[in-house]
Amino acid sequence: MPTTRAGRNFMKQSTRNILLQVVTGSMIIVLLLWQGLRERTVEADSGVRQTMGTFARVLVVAPDNASARAAIAAAVETFERAERLMSDHDPASQLSEVNRRAFDEPVVVDAEVFAVLAAAVRYSRLSEGAFDVTVGPVVQLWRQAKRDGALPTAEQIAAAGATVGYGNLMLDAESRTVRFAVEGMALDLGGIAKGYAIDRAVEAMRQAGATGGMVDVGGDLVCFGTPVGGRDRWRIGLQDPGDEGNLLLRLAIDGHAVATSGDYRRFTVLNGQKHSHIVNPVTADSAAGLSSVTIIAQSAMEADALATAVSVLGHEKGLALIELLDNVEAIIIRSDAPNEWRATSGAETYIQKK
Ligand code: AMP
Ligand code: MG
């Protein structure tokens, strides 16, 4: 054993060398592992497909091709189920059956339909009827007007409006039944079902092994987990309602839902005037005033319902309602000021500075 000073120095140096080698070695191993993990991440894109009267697209990040494919299939299956249950365009859907029978007798519905109806009633209350799940006959009237190319008469508007009122919808949780108190009532889940389906799709994708993804149904979306393309965050663009090709601003989100409603994409021109597909349940007229309402929330169902509600409430009442809610933000554009947007105080967190 060397005991001289030179010997001790030699010992120290060789210990240091060994340590250095161990550290460098483990760094290389970590790097290789990380590289390996990265390589084991695959991405898949469902492409644009039709569902629930609009388009849908799913992006997925998963550890392997099989789980990526399973995640896309699970999301698509969720959309198809939501459509089968809740479409008001399909006479065979459970919702259509409720609309036909619920005045005559209580109608038993699927647990999912019941949950969405219960949530819809909560948003109807929260928005004091700006969102109203019983708005069906008024929506039908305006759809007919669009087909005819002529405005409905004042009598038709009054008759349709008379049936509206979520207070006349009776939900019984125990028997899971739905019943109408007024003849001619009809439910419409068009303002909330997309959001519900998106949330369920995200759940199904995670279960199938997705570590990240985006589910977009008609411009309402959720981005979760690992972003695609090796990016650090999910970034989405908000379309300028006045100029289809232009982005108004960019949002950075992580696990949030973003829903946009407004008259810029879905509307009809009757007598030279733009009519939104969103109606005011109180006046039975089509909603006017806001060309775009974007809600950022924790769930797509909440974002979807509130975007529809704020479109009816208008900018002042709408922004005031959203300010009151935790973890919900709004960005709105008025039809008469297409180049300006207004937002709730917390929206800044998501807006990307150019
Ligand atoms: P969204 O695109 O989410 O704003 O939903 C619009 C759809 O919601 C319409 O096509 C109708 O089916 C339905 N709807 C329209 N007005 C209302 C309203 N005031 N409350 C609830 N649902 C509505
Ligand atoms: Mg909506």
Present the secondary structure layout:
Layout: H1 5-39, E1 42-45, E2 49-51, E3 54-62, H2 65-86, H3 94-101, E4 107-108, H4 111-126, H5 136-148, H6 154-162, E5 169-172, E6 177-180, H7 193-207, E7 212-217, E8 220-225, E9 234-240, E10 243-253, E11 257-261, E12 267-270, E13 273-276, E14 290-297, H8 300-313, H9 315-324, E15 329-334, E16 342-343, E17 351-352
Overview of the molecule:
- With 354 residues, this protein is of the alpha+beta class.
- Helices cover 40% and strands 25% of the residues.
- The chain contains nine helices and 17 strands.
- It has helices at 5-39, 65-86, 94-101, 111-126, 136-148, 154-162, 193-207, 300-313, 315-324; strands spanning 42-45, 49-51, 54-62, 107-108, 169-172, 177-180, 212-217, 220-225, 234-240, 243-253, 257-261, 267-270, 273-276, 290-297, 329-334, 342-343, 351-352.
- A hairpin with a 2-residue loop joins strand 2 and strand 3 (54-62).
- The longest helix has 35 residues, at 5-39.
- The model has no long low-confidence stretch (mean pLDDT 90).
- Bound molecules: adenosine monophosphate and magnesium ion.
- Adenosine monophosphate binds at residues 131-132, 135, 139, 188, 190-191, 261, 277-279, 281, 304, 307-308, 312.
